[in-house]
Design brief:
239 residues; alpha/beta; two-stranded antiparallel sheet; binds NADP nicotinamide-adenine-dinucleotide phosphate
């Protein structure tokens, strides 16, 4: 891989903790907003930033979004800005809110899955796989979601958004890496990027080795979260 691609994508080749690679991404403004108060977010990032997101999609087996994003943006989650295969599309929809007309569910040859609280799937088009995960106080444990996706053959998984979904995976220590793509804009209000349960002291914060890359007008922060990632998949074979 030529530079800078090796620096950015090389760490996604193999899991450091187990056989899975889980990467979260957030596209945000300087003031850490992912959308305006009306939910408008197209597009915060530059062309180069959006190409980066499509490159990530092309490198993973599956892309996961929350039902909030599926309803607000109705994304296709396909690879269009770069060459590469389309990943499987997965929506976390505990309460069966996803309309069957959602574009992520379109039958185009890739696997489409909906992760739902056991017993709560809505009406979904033929061919969509339902992944039941037990709810605990309205939350589907991210570890249980990852284990269920691993059991269905997915190894490299991109948690693409929104911020609520990525935050849940981060808080549950289910990310190997986090790609934060910062655009040179200040939105001033609206939906916040990552939000975790509050802590009292700075030394309790998640601290991650980080590298910065320039992507067009955007800055990509690539954070290595492997030190806090819980093992979920198959243990790595010792060499
Ligand atoms: N800039 C970016 O990179 C970016 C990317 C994506 C989206 N967005 C923007 O972000 C906004 C939507 O994001 P969002 O944060 O509100 O929503 P989201 O993360 O897409 O979806 C959140 C919802 O997904 C469900 N969910 C996800 N994980 C869950 C879990 N582990 N357990 C239980 N439920 C889970 C819940 O559904 P229920 O509500 O049914 O409980 C939750 O309310 C839109 O305005 C969109 O434009 C920006």
């Amino acid at each position: 891989m030529p530079q800078p691609w090796e620096d950015i994508f090389g760490p996604l080749r193999k899991g450091a903790i187990d056989d899975l690679v889980l990467v979260g991404q957030c596209g945000q403004s300087i003031d850490a907003r992912v959308a305006t108060p009306t939910g408008h977010s197209h597009y915060i990032n530059s062309e180069a930033g959006l190409a980066h997101l499509h490159r990530l999609r092309a490198l993973v087996d599956a892309v996961v979004i929350g039902v909030g994003t599926a309803i607000a943006d109705d994304p296709q989650l396909t690879v269009r800005r770069v060459e590469g295969p389309n990943p499987a599309r997965i929506v976390v929809d505990p309460n069966g809110r996803l309309p069957s007309s959602a574009r992520v569910l379109a039958a185009d040859g890739v696997r489409r899955l909906v992760v739902t609280a056991a017993g709560a799937p809505g009406k979904l088009p033929a061919g969509v796989e339902i992944v039941p995960v037990a709810a605990n106080d309205r939350e589907l444990a991210p570890t249980a979601i990852v284990a269920a996706l691993s059991a269905r053959g997915f190894r490299r998984i991109l948690i693409e958004g929104g911020a609520d979904t990525v935050s849940r995976f981060l808080a549950a220590r289910c990310l190997d890496r986090l790609h934060v793509l910062i655009a040179p804009i200040i939105i001033g209000g609206g939906r916040s990027s990552l939000t975790l349960p509050p802590i009292a002291r700075v030394e309790e914060a998640v601290r991650a080795p980080m590298r910065a890359h320039s992507l067009g007008g955007d800055v990509l922060l690539d954070c290595d979260l492997s030190a806090q990632r819980l093992p979920i998949g198959r243990a790595k074979m010792s060499t």
